[in-house]
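Table S2 (continued). Query chain:
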Amino acid sequence: MTTSSTVTPAQALLKILNPAPRAQAALPSDAAADKAMADFLADIAALDRKHNRGQSLSQDQLAEQIFRQSPTFKNERAIIPYLRYQLRVALEELTILDREMRGQSGGSITYAVLSRYGRVIIDFLFDLREILPFLQRKEVGWTFFNGVKNSHATSWEIFGLARGLAFQSTYVASGPPFDHKIAQIASIFVLRQAMELRFERLIAVYPNDRKGKPPKLRHGFHQEFIAAHPEFFQADGFRVKELRHLYDWCSEIVHQAYQPYAWQISMALRRGGDLLRSRSAPPTEAWSIFNSVKVADVEAMQAAYENHFLSTYGHGAWLFTREKPEAFVPNWKKEMAFTSTTYRAVLNRPNLWIRIRARIRRTCFGKRSTGA
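Corresponding output:
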């Protein structure tokens, strides 16, 4: 176990990534860079074995916990399982990152490759600094390293990103065009938008009222339908239902604009990619850029969605337009895309009448009270 009298693996790696500024100082060697990363990863693996005790945890189990929105805990004991889940995901994502770096330099990590990923690795270091001291609080003399980072983003910084994105083609300076922290936050903004669009376009049914306006659907309306009807949506290696934790967590980042833990970002992109990336297809099967999900019976699925909408939406009469879903649809025909010719009223009209009757009663009661 590391004590404060020795240089910890985290301190050694941080020193490699941020060498002391000295005139004409030699850069760290490739061997030093490789050893620093290997020692750090081994240290995190040992801590995971200690706190998670070799427990097998599925990706769905991990996602449900680490993408919790604004988690609260009744006492210190209650937070421990949550931090253990964070530690496990940090280890898994670090392992993937380590494998990626080694793949770029023939199996060992060079200083040049380590430096290229330096900002991300530093995020891992400082984010782990938030959870490990608590998990290790009973270990006398244990230390990681000293330091904190600011994960908060101001509205001014977000505006700067918006302007930078709008005029990114004019960027001519050397180095990254956007601040690292703000770019990471923005990646979650865009991921949420991509997931929201894919959920809607997997169904590809668009209601409009008599004024030509679409309904104001609650957050997650399309994803809820997909999750409730797995018989229509054949996902490749994942379950759409289990993406709801990630989807809602992305919405929290959008509204609060803070930099998540580094491993949350990489896991979010990996799980979101299950839905959004295309898959290789066998030679006997047609390929589609949207083939992460297959919809074999589009007509039945879209009819079911229309009925679901009419059964759950509160009011109005609606005209439906059906389009080709963003999915692998082997039986698709052009004539399946059409707009209905008649408006269909919602099916929950009795509930609407109850609300109207209650309003009438309140109005009449008010009149009697005024006349008393």
